[in-house]
Amino acid sequence: MSTFNQQATVPDERGRFGRFGGKYVPETLMNALEELESAFADARKDPAFLAELAFLLREYAGRPTPLYFAERMTEALGGAQIYLKREDLNHTGAHKLNNALGQGLLAKRMGKKSIIAETGAGQHGVASATVAAKLGLSCKVFMGEEDIKRQALNVFRMRLLGAEVVPATSGTRTLKDATNEAIRYWVSQVEETFYVIGSVVGPHPYPYMVREFQKIIGEETRAQILEQIGRLPDEVVACVGGGSNAIGMFYPFLHDDVALCGVEAAGRGVDTAEHAATLTLGRPGVIHGAMTYLLQDEYGQVQEAHSISAGLDYPGVGPEHAYLKDTGRVRYTAVTDEEALGAVQFLCQTEGIIPALESAHAVAEVMKRAPEMAKDQVIVICLSGRGDKDVMSIQAALEQKGGAAE
Amino acid sequence: MIQTGQNRIDQLFADRSRKRFIPFITVGDPSLEVSFEIVKALVEAGSDLLELGVAYSDPLADGPTIQRASQRALANGVTIADVLAFVAKLRDAGINTPLVLFTYVNPVMQYGVERFFADLAKHGADGAVIPDLPAEENAEATAAAKKYGLHLISLVAPTSESRIKLIGEQASGFIYCVSSLGVTGARSQLRSDLAEFVQKVKASSGLPAAVGFGISTPEQVREVAAFSDGVIVGSAIVQQIERNLSLLAQPETKAEGMQHIKNFVQQLASGLQ
After folding, report:
1. What ipTM, to 2 d.p.?
2. Please, is A272 exposed, middle or buried when counting C-beta atoms within 10 Å of its C-beta (0-12, 13-18, 19+)?
3. Does the distance separating the beta carbons of B63 and A26 come in below 8 Å?
């Protein structure tokens, strides 16, 4: 957007996206963050590292993922033409692998023998376990006890891949607490262990580094849409939990005349206490090492988030999203559990694609948005992951609703 | 406003020939009333400086023991304002021991950084430890602490090697040396290179150095006191409180529970004699 005067480079050298970001971590970790920062800076300049990453993304992950014209969905909604960026077709079933491969290679380059990761829905855990197996590293995945129940299939996949799944039993037993436990473990083993953070959250340089590993989504999309229709889309939509698929998708479009929309989880509704709409309803605060929007009470105690989707069930959000909200470059909105469920069914029935519950939030927003747009307009959805992992929870939710899939 | 020269922490460490015992408790665990009595017992048992923990929902630097204490205090609805009132009440009761609040950064930000330090001074506290506010992020808090004659206590970790100088330049009061990698909580063994690390911190900063994290026995207290200016014990004391929760909960057995805690702390502090 021409009115958008983004600084040439965010984050700045202190890891700040405007007033957001930074490094709010115990002193024990500061040296490790400095080492990571310089190792990442070196790796990015090393043609051998970049070539190895490019090779793995192509030959192992299967990139580029298709940009697919969703013809029946477009017809059914009767408005803008809808394209799906098929991150669900990436190896392991979600965009998470792009980042896990990058950080895994970096861990190996830094001489670390073990990696740890946190996971919510289990997609990042699976991606990390996969990369650890592929690169010969040991892997521990911290996962909230509650999420272990919701995502049994992914827990099994991680174990099958040779990772140890460590239940986080503190607090709300979801992604927030899994991240706390991963950080606590990292503090104790910081010299030998590489922490593979799965989203654009955490202390600097993570939000920046994860963006750099995920921006391939937007770069491919930009090139593919230009090739397919000869112009840029009018709007790009992605779901936001921590926000890595969204940042990866949005970043290459920031300076274009393209509307960007991030979709958070409204859970049972933004007018209830049970939601994960951090950017919509949170206030600036510090979580997991970064200043960002945060769901918290008036005393600064972090509040429980709620979403049917384990991957969006997080009371914080990446600091770059906080910045993009404040600058007005990205519009953030939220859709409910029920709308997301409806979107799962809709996409299954119109396109034969089972989306992850996370990605279904973006689909649900487009179901509202596309009919308002003209037929010659183009909207791209980042379909960040596939829904196989969610079929049990989808079944349970639909049965509870009484309208089980026939 | 308190002048820096009169800060109780500076008065305490003016004589560096004596080693100082520094216990930690979470305020409001198990209740504000019992915490008040525990503090009095800690002072009687020979504590030189007290760290008062402010409960937080996501205490990243803390192990399971202090996490549980935090949960108990949060269940009682304890806030920063309650802890400040608690400090004022201790001062009114004639306790003149230096007091620092141990709190995470987010509650301080929501309270207001400047207002937090102003109110610390107003209520009679001497400083604060904010474990997730490293040197790179603490400019506002450092300035506010200075303005009100308080100390923002800096932490130095075994991994801080290349950062000791940077930290030393902005540190005040004393330096909190983290004994080992990891979160708070008892450890059976301390690092063999701990003495060397603490010497380096003292030489580089010129400030007194107190050592904490993982210290739980009188033997460890004695060992650490040999090369430091103070010994900080948190989780081991909180564990004693936890073990005596049922005694502390009943009026007829409360005194017995308090006595257990006091005896334990006396034993620890005896490591310094």
Report:
1. 0.95
2. exposed
3. no
Tell me, yes or no, if A13 comes closer than 8 A to chain B by beta carbon.
no
Across the interface, do A30 and B163 touch by the CB < 8 Å criterion? yes
**Minimum distance, in Å, between the CA of residue A280 and any CA atom of chain B:** 18
One-letter amino acid of B189: Q
- CA A98, A101, A107, A110 dihedral sign is negative
Tell whether A25 lies on the interface with B, counting CB pairs under 8 A. Answer: yes
Judged by CB atoms closer than 8 Å, whether chains meet at A27 and B156 is answered as yes
- Output the six-digit token pair for B22: 């520094």
Out of A147-156, A277-286, B209-218, which region has the weakest mean confidence (pLDDT)? A147-156
Phi, psi of B128 (to 5 degrees): -145, 150
Determine, for residues A26 and B137 on separate chains, whether the beta-carbon distance falls below 8 Å: no
State the pLDDT confidence band at A5, using cuts at 50, 70 and 90: very low
Tokens coding A47:
């043609």
Sequence letter at residue A271:
D
Structural domain harbouring B232: 19-153+216-272
**CA nearest to A304 within chain B:** B57
Tens-place pLDDT, residues B172-196: 999 999 998 999 987 878 888 999 9
CB nearest to A188's CB, from B64, B107, B181 = B181
Q: Which run of H or E residues covers position A72?
A: helix A71-77
Among A116, A177, A286, A288, the strongest candidate for a mutation testing the B interface, having the largest count of B CBs within 10 A, is A286
The per-residue pLDDT for range A291-318, each reduced to its tens digit, is 999 999 999 999 999 999 989 999 999 9
- Whether residue B210 lies inside any domain: the answer is no
Distance CA A3, CA B195 (A): 58
pLDDT of residue B4: 45
Catalytic site positions of B: 51, 62
In a domain, B256, yes or no: yes
pTM for this one?
Answer: 0.96
Query: Is residue A405's pLDDT more than 70?
Result: no
**Contact between residue A293 and residue A286 where contact means Cβ atoms under 8 Å apart:** no
Where in chain B does DSSP place strands (E)?
20-26, 50-53, 99-102, 127-129, 151-156, 175-178, 209-212, 230-233
Q: What CATH number does the domain containing B264 carry?
A: 3.20.20.70
In a domain, B249, yes or no: yes
Q: Would you call B109 and A300 a contact, using CB atoms and an 8 Å cutoff?
A: yes
**Where residue A8 falls among pLDDT bands split at 50, 70, 90?**
low
Residues of chain B by 3-state class (helix, strand, coil), percent to 5:
50, 15, 35
Is A399 in contact with A164 (CB distance < 8 Å)? no
Residues belonging to chain A: 406
Count of other CB atoms within 10 angstroms of residue A342: 18
A371 φ, ψ to 5°?
A: -65, -20
Asked if the structure places residue B168 within a domain, the reply is no
Q: Each residue of A214-241: pLDDT tens digit?
A: 999 999 999 999 999 999 999 999 999 9
Per-residue pLDDT at A158 exceeds 70? yes
How many domains does the structure of chain B reveal? Answer: 1
Neighboring chain A residues of B152 at a CB cutoff of 8 Å: none
Task: State the Cα–Cα distance between residues A177 and A301, nearest whole angstrom.
Answer: 14
Predicted confidence band at A156 (pLDDT cuts at 50, 70, 90)?
A: very high
Q: What beta strand segments (E) does A197-295 contain?
A: 235-239, 259-267, 283-287, 290-294
Residue B272: pLDDT band (50, 70, 90) is confident
